[in-house]
Amino acid sequence: ALCSSTVTDCSPSVSLILCYPVLQWSGPPWTVYMHFWIVVDAQPTEAERETWEEVDVVLQDARAILDELQAYKGAGQEIREAIQNPNDEALQDQAWAAVVPLVGKLKKFYEFSQRLEAALHSLLRALTNETYSDSMQHLEREQALAKQFAEILHFTLRFDELKMINPAIQNDFSYYRRTLNRMRINNVPAEGENEVNNELANRISLFYADATPMLKALSDGTTKFVSENKNLPIENTTDVLSTMASVCKVMLETPEYRSRFSSEATVSFCLRVMVGVIILYDYVHPVGAFAKSSKIDMKGCIKVLRDQPPNSVEGLLNALRYTTKHLNDESTAKTIKSMLQ
């Protein structure tokens, strides 16, 4: 049965809850009903409120982080002039003065990844505990938290998309580290070192060296959550992830639902969340998302991505190609591998 209520369009911060689609699973002959709906502004219940308020603070800051990253221009010109004129102290000073505040921003982004991981842990604790018998009950009865989980994934994929198309980030930080080391060797005081010392610089450098740093932080965080909560069946976590992936896929591939969105931003939101939960699932499930036994319909999800305008999803396809854990396993079907080539 299909829900008769109207599905309204929504902002990119909408939760990914779908209204009564019937999902036919391959394998055992049962039908899974999802009693979810799109909620523009899901309000937390009293049971959810403490976790919701904790995560909401992080999500409020997430929007500002994306704005700052999008506006990040870098110090490319100052760095080039300093490198081309190594004996010109004025140009060296100009480049350093340009880079130090930018490194402060990069430090802020890195530290935010740690806050995001902590928020993810809070949501996973709520959505995987034994309060309800299965993942669908959790997602139905804790809609506000499900929405926040989706928003974290949307932020993560969007952050990494912006980072990948901005080479200035790594160039600026590399110049900062080289200059800092040179100053140290020459016993020159470096005001910027108070902002980012050598030990922290090493950690930040590793963070930005990854093609998708926020996604890696979340993947590692999800893996850590599972390993630290051995009393919880791993299915509690993987079922939440696979259920959300299925909701996204059905939403995007079914004209009935897709046609009700007037905003492409909502489509992008759904696509990012779908890819995000696939990658997290692939990290924490023992055999990953691409195995035959996976509860995620990977062929269907990849087809949904392939059906979008190519320029709009290349970053998401690359995330599946290069940041998943099990794609290149021998057990992965050749058809799935070929779909991602």
Automatic annotation (TrEMBL):
A Pfam family hit: CYRIA-B_Rac1-bd
What subcellular locations does the record give? Answer: Membrane
* One Gene Ontology term, aspect cellular component: membrane
**How does the record classify its membrane topology?**
Lipid-anchor
Q: Where would I find the CYRIA/CYRIB Rac1 binding domain in this sequence?
A: 39-337
InterPro entries membership? CYRI, CYRIA/CYRIB_Rac1-bd
Its primary localisation, in coarse terms, equals membrane
MF-aspect GO terms: small GTPase binding
Q: Which UniProt keywords apply?
A: Lipoprotein, Membrane
Top-level division of the source organism's lineage: Eukaryota
A GO biological-process term: regulation of actin filament polymerization
Query: What family does this belong to?
Result: Belongs to the CYRI family.
| Classification via PANTHER family | GH09096P
Q: What is this protein called?
A: Family with sequence similarity 49 member Bb
Organism source for this protein? Answer: Pygocentrus nattereri (Red-bellied piranha)
Read off the lineage from the record.
Eukaryota, Metazoa, Chordata, Craniata, Vertebrata
